[in-house]
Amino acid sequence: MADADTADAHTADAHTADADIIVVGAGLAGLVAAAEAADAGRSVVLVEQEGEQSLGGQAFWSLGGLFFVDSPEQRRMGIRDSRELAWQDWLGSAQFDREEDRWPRAWAEAYVDFAAGEKRAWLRGMGHRVFPLVGWAERGDGRADGHGNSVPRFHITWGTGPGVVAPFERRVRAHADRGRLRFAFRHRVDGLVIEGGAVAGVRGRVLEPTSADRGRPTSRTAIGDFELRAQAVIVTSGGIGGDLDLVRKVWPARLGPPPRTMVAGVPAHVDGRMLGIAEAAGARVINPDRMWHYVEGLRNWDPIWDDHGIRILPGPSSLWLDATGKRLPAPCFPGFDTLGTLRHLRQTGYDYSWFVLTQKIIEKEFALSGSEQNPDLTGKDIRLVLSRVRGGAPAPVEAFKRHGADFVVAENLTELVAGMNKLADPDAPPIEEATLRSLIEARDREIDNAFTKDAQVTAIRGARNYRGDKLSRVAAPHKLLDPKAGPLIAVRLHILSRKTLGGLESDLDGRCLRADGTPFPGLYAAGEVNGFGGGGMMGYNALEGTFLGGCLFSGRVAGRAAARAIG
């Protein structure tokens, strides 16, 4: 009789379970986790509060940059990289200094091994390809053992963000066609189902269907309730960057006062809800004060979501001024030390700063982050890519120059200053032409020789020693007031919200941990919701190309581990 009761109980459990594994969030980490779990023979439900048109989440909008170490592309460009150098850079950037950094540091080391090992081959086996010129992002704070990349490591995906998403979307859709995976779009999770101290599923509201384009605001009108049950739940719901009030709430004092105004680098549905839901259920959130926001944001003249901001990926030549017209100190140069520059600017009392540059600089050094801002790379259009080496800035950059509210274009410095003062905040002191002219002329005199005491000019010349920068990224040093390099351009820069670097603490299998350090049975996490690994594998600073890579790695780990663990 006992055997029969046991058999009946198992049969009932099998009938009530909707899948072996539930994945919450259909961004890149969720797609990877779902694909890996389904590959292992497990049934999967992929739950997403947005519509099917948003599959791929924030990765779709990205430039598709990936952090590889000692890649063939690097070697062809004459770059000598190594796992040891990458780990040195990672530690210098992360600056782990807390007891809570045990698992983040372990994840960081595992990720660097992955980036120096099988990451490229794994992706390549799925058809992923990269652009041959390796970019040098986040060049650092000027110290060999400090923050930043010692060498170029930013590999742009051929196809940008959609090219990163595509292999995993194909895998997931193939499993759906075979019946191993099903989608639950417009299902908003409001809570975890807990039984016997273990996570046994999710519950929430079904939202009304939406036809809104990807990234556009969608309805939150509920038309019903749902509950889904499984042996494991993997949370891959992203960070908090779309909720600017929440960003301000957790803003750390070490970065200065939170900005009153900023632009959003992600849509509003990147709201951090699942962080709170998982924490309320008993999972531990660590390092919530670690975050990654940019200081080169533009108001999008053709916005997709509310407060839509676009980041400039700058070369090193623009003169950077604070809102009062003072030049930023070393190493606060364009593209060098994101949070160091943010920290400096938050002490000025203003939420914006300025680039002053020339047409010659914008043509070679301005790139805009995002798949939609790079139609040549996104569309894999070789002819359009080759047009970048001809005269003129890329078409999306020229469009911002013509239509963007943050651009001033002038034939002389007098007109430029007048335009800057029109765009300035009412409470900011006006930029004085005589002061700015003296500053620029002092900088321009340093161009006459191949050697200089100006640290930024030295950095420009040093960057051009790298063939990739000389070919496509860094303009030849020239005087800003040289009419042949004009017109002059000023760009008002905003703080742009982007990534959450802390999150759900997890072990090296992606299992969420409780406050006492023990695994929370049945609960896993991957992607931005767990700081891309462990609860913050990047520590205080990111090396760029690591956000997508962190989603890939943590999604793979969690999907495989959950598939192994269930009965």
Describe this entry's structure for a reader.
One of its GO terms (molecular function) is steroid dehydrogenase activity, acting on the CH-CH group of donors. The chain is of the alpha+beta class and 567 residues long. The protein has two domains: 19-237 and 272-290 and 501-565, FAD/NAD(P)-binding domain (3-Layer(bba) Sandwich), CATH 3.50.50; 293-496. It has 19 helices and 21 strands. The protein has helices at residues 2-16, 28-39, 72-76, 83-94, 102-116, 119-124, 160-177, 244-249, 273-281, 338-345, 359-365, 375-378, 382-386, 395-403, 413-423, 433-445, 455-463, 467-472, 546-565, and strands at 21-24, 44-48, 65-67, 154-156, 181-185, 187-195, 198-207, 222-229, 232-235, 263-264, 285-286, 291-299, 309-314, 319-322, 352-358, 366-368, 407-410, 488-500, 503-504, 511-513, 519-525. The strands form five sheets. Strands 10, 12, 13, 14, 15, 16, 17 and 18 form an eight-stranded mixed β-sheet that branches. A six-stranded mixed β-sheet has the order 5-2-1-9-21-20. α2 (28-39) packs parallel to α19 (546-565) and α4 (83-94) runs antiparallel to α5 (102-116). Residues 1-15 have low confidence and may be disordered.
